[in-house]
Amino acid sequence: MTGTAVVTVVHGRHDHLELQRLSLALSTRAPDEHVVVAVDDPVVAAADWCAAELPTHPLGLPIAAARNRGAEVAIERGADVLVFLDVDCLAAPGLVTAYGEVVRDEPTIVWSGPVTYLEEPPPGGYDLSRLAALDSPHPARPAPGPGVRTRGADPDLFWSLSFACSVEAWHGLGGFCEDYVGYGGEDTDFARTIAASDLDLGWVGDARAYHQWHPVSRPPVEHVDDIVRNAAIFQRRWGTTPMLGWLEAFEERGLVSRDDAGRWLAVG
């Protein structure tokens, strides 16, 4: 049995999830499964379409573990292509088809599609029929045009908002490292795991997504403890420090410091 499964992890953002589900329903080819994993979210967990649920972790949301659980359910249901889509992302009509085709054509590559960050929605909300008119992919990431595939992508530019891989590739990678809990680090770690394997990273222009607006902090000061802890995990695993821009911005604000060994510490 083969099929394309979209995996979405949810903690709140119910309006965003509802619009994502509508965008997937408008796909030129709907996913065979939409595997929604509720993390400490009893409202979503109670829905008959919710596939799995996880409790929260004492240190924060177990996003890495939730993605792994979603992949497990998708594979149990017969998927051969796994598409991971952040709850804030709307799918362009061709996203599911594009990911399914490119993964089956080149299953040893983990594929990402361009993501546009949308402005705050108008009073009537986003018009799903006009998303293409808003297309303006994030300038910090590759953005191949429609019909274009690129390979040999920089692992430091990988993000987990929207990507896809074959089940064989997923098994070979072992999924996300569940040592990461809370905000930050697990997707950069996943990309390093890909780079250290026999697999490659690529971008596919036809798998476009649109990130729904929500308020953000720059830098994300509400996640200082998570970022310091997860950066230390990454340092132990890979020998380098991720999220350095955020850590240095925290340091400027007096929120973190470095000890004599160069380790980052949350102040207080």
Automatic annotation (TrEMBL):
Pfam families: Glyco_transf_7C
Pathway annotation: Cell wall biogenesis; cell wall polysaccharide biosynthesis
Family: Belongs to the glycosyltransferase 2 family.
Name of the molecule in the record: Galactosyltransferase-related protein
A GO term for molecular function: glycosyltransferase activity
Keyword Transferase: yes
Residues covered by the Galactosyltransferase C-terminal domain: 162-203
